[in-house]
Design a protein that fits this description.
It contains 15 helices and 18 strands. The chain has about 475 residues and is α+β, with helices and mostly antiparallel strands.
């Protein structure tokens, strides 16, 4: 196989590749709005046709919602890896439309201070990123007549609307979708020009509770003093969640399953170009407010949290109402890391609350709230270091294994349903305005993203 010739073909074909992406971006495949159902179908058909043009056995598969696109190429053979590549073709709504500088589904190249960008809805999330891999495969096929390994393509059309059809589809088609490694492109670089492989994400635990005091709202003149006030009670309990001196969560056993970051990863994080001051000041902060013993990046990527997402009760209308409310309510979420068990943690948090209730205070819990473990990638697998080397060669600087503060559910689903490790590589930048007006994708990200995947395919094939 000739990698140099593939890279040269990618360079020469960039205008045509950009044109193909522009055509794809013109399809307004907004999954959450039923008015765009036909457009989502059209986007799936577009992908099927493009994959078939590469000799890939591709189909549009029906679901109760928007269709999946599944394609296969290559045969099982000893010493040849089987890769599953995932992306999504649906996009976010464009509201508010008045804030767009150009029509969201009329993509165009625009010059900026950081170079040319592709402006349009879906350019970064996720059509542009999805097409970096497809275009890398196109160049491989044109130069070598075949792809370097066996590949399954798996594109969904409901990622931006909660993926209601994803788990049932994966469960029903688990045998067909199983592979050696999953590749996911729906991520970004840690900073501009720094290629990144996300090696750990945070899981999630959600819960909600209500504290009840008196059986009805009370007049504060008649009962102020003797009455237990649920808002005061819930405020006291919430304050007990935290150790103000250290910034740590004070729930007993909260940190079970949390691991320290290996020194080599900490070294990569310290040199990855992350601008702490810019990160904090962009939202009005002068310092980080998490665990004081850890850096801002460690707080974001490698440490768990307990956050108060909503707190309400009593009178919230105009003016004053002298009431002692009957109830106070609180919504919480925890971001999980390492081997934290969401079910065990839920028990600990509820025990913490219930142990601190005053006489006459009662707590009820919402038992429909969900939890998921943190996906942690096995970067000891040789494929990860091979991919990091390939990215380093393309971007001419060391690629880094990063964490992610949020959650990408598909990575967890691949592990739980298919027992499949995921490699998350994306080329988006933090200023791409995904989910916002004026979304864009740097032309450099698109071009070097294609070249990067070509190098990664070559590197992964050599590790088999």
């Amino acid at each position: 196989m000739s990698l140099d010739a593939v890279l040269a073909r990618i360079d020469a074909d960039l205008p045509q590749a950009t044109d193909r992406l522009m055509e794809f971006l013109r399809i307004p495949s907004i999954s959450t709005d039923p008015a765009y159902k036909a457009e989502c179908d059209k986007a799936a058909d577009w992908l099927v046709a493009d994959l078939k043009a590469l000799g890939i056995d591709a189909e549009k598969r029906p679901t109760p919602g928007h269709p999946m696109v599944v394609g296969h190429i290559g045969e099982a053979a000893e010493g040849v890896p089987h890769l599953l590549f995932y992306g999504h073709y649906d996009v976010q709504p464009v509201d508010p439309l008045t804030l767009w500088h150009t029509p969201p589904f009329e993509p165009q190249i625009e010059e900026t201070a950081n170079g040319p960008v592709i402006r349009g809805r879906g350019s970064s999330d996720d059509k542009g990123q999805l097409m970096t891999f497809v275009e890398a495969c196109r160049a491989w096929k044109e130069i070598n007549g075949t792809l370097p390994c066996r590949i399954t393509f798996f594109f969904e059309g409901e990622e931006e609307s909660g993926s209601p059809s994803l788990i049932p589809f994966m469960q029903a088609n688990a045998e067909e979708l199983k592979a050696d490694l999953a590749l996911i492109c729906d991520t970004s670089m840690v900073s501009r020009g720094v290629p990144s492989i996300a090696s750990q994400l945070r899981g999630m635990l959600k819960d909600e509770f209500t504290i009840t005091g008196p059986r009805i709202d009370l007049h504060s003149g008649h009962y102020g003093g003797p009455a237990l006030n649920p808002l005061r009670e819930i405020s006291r309990i919430i304050a007990s969640f935290y150790d103000e001196d250290t910034g740590r969560v004070a729930v007993e056993g909260f940190y079970e399953g949390v691991h320290e970051v290996p020194e080599d990863q900490l070294r990569q994080w310290k040199t990855c170009g992350f601008d702490e001051e810019d990160y904090l000041s962009s939202v009005g902060f002068t310092e980080a407010h998490g665990e004081k013993a850890y850096s801002t990046l460690e707080q974001q990527w490698a440490r768990p949290t307990l956050e108060i997402n909503g707190l309400w009760g009593g009178y919230n209308g105009a003016g004053s109402k002298t009431v002692i409310p009957s109830e106070a309510h609180c919504k919480i979420t925890c971001r999980l890391v390492g081997d934290m068990d969401p079910d065990a943690l839920r028990v600990k948090i509820r025990k913490h609350v219930e142990a601190r209730l005053s006489t006459d205070a009662k707590v009820t819990w919402d038992n429909d709230m969900e939890g998921s473990r943190a996906p942690v990638m096995d970067i000891s697998r040789p494929e990860f270091e091979a991919a990091r080397g390939a990215l380093s060669d393309e971007w001419e600087r060391e690629a880094v294994f990063t964490g992610m503060g949020g959650s990408i559910p598909i990575a967890g689903f691949f592990k739980k349903i298919l027992d499949l490790d995921s490699m998350l590589i994306g080329f988006a930048n933090d200023d791409d305005a995904i989910h916002s007006p004026n979304e864009k994708y740097d032309v450099k990200s698109f071009h070097k993203g294609i070249r990067s995947w070509a190098r990664v395919l070559a590197a992964l094939t050599k590790t088999a």
